[in-house]
# Entry
Amino acid sequence: MRSRSLAQLAEVVGCCSPLARQPLSADQSVELARVFKAMGDPVRLRLLSLIASHAGGEACVCDLTDVFDLSGPTISHHLKVLREAGLITGERRGTWIYYRVHPELLAQVSAVLVPAAPDDPSGIIPDGITSLPVVDR
Amino acid sequence: MRSRSLAQLAEVVGCCSPLARQPLSADQSVELARVFKAMGDPVRLRLLSLIASHAGGEACVCDLTDVFDLSGPTISHHLKVLREAGLITGERRGTWIYYRVHPELLAQVSAVLVPAAPDDPSGIIPDGITSLPVVDR
DNA sequence: GCTCTGTTTCGACAAGCGTCAAGGTAGACG
DNA sequence: CGTCTACCTTGACGCTTGTCGAAACAGAGC
# Structure
């Protein structure tokens, strides 16, 4: 129970329902808070940024460990939190495991935060957001 | 020490430096994580949404307390967290205290999450973001 | 003074962060 | 094939931090 936050977020939040347009329901707030809580740590935020900005859109764990003064298990724990929040996915290729972000979820969360502007047609997200792959573990 | 996160966020994060464009520095991640952590709770997220979407852009605490099955002190505590994160400000007018959001900070955080799109000139935030009022406590 | 509103203080309980030790998995070598 | 090493994850344990409510406190209005 918690291995579907991305799909569920897409379902509950829907496309482009800004925070300031109408009050969040209890379910919406729980799903959104799960993502924000995952991003509410400096280390995880840097991990996310490192992965997202890495060449090719993916980064090996070995690239991430050296940046911090933290042990391997700690990094792995943080990556697990980001994974379970639906923000990243890990794929094993040979010896190394490569992580990449779900840019759709980031865009979706970004759209939720945008204030309800009068000249905004609320069409920031491109399309096809509702059919995202389910988080894999 | 912690009563300037809005101005400091504007200063550290700068205008429109998406998460996926380049890795966050340690300072940037700390400031951003402070905001995300404040939003990483369902109650606080709903409070934020209730205030932002309320008529007139502001809401009395009495309007917020009835929505939740929580005691008054708990709501007050959550409001304090949002206040110290620079997301809202409270103003006393007579008997009641009215809260309103800082839409600039939301827009700023939203811009950080937007993926680095090729056709995006990174000019989402209007302007004048760097001269925001300092958080008042 | 008394009441209403909202905050602060304090304590109990739960959740999160970090390290050490152990468990899988994949490639290298004999 | 067996073993060895490297890479990453998982589990278990302290320690810190966060969440919540009862009681006490501060402001405004009658």
User: Anything to note?
Assistant: Residues 60-62, 65, 72-73, 75-77, 79-80, 90, 92, 95-97 of chain A lie near DNA strand D (CB under 10 Å from a C1').
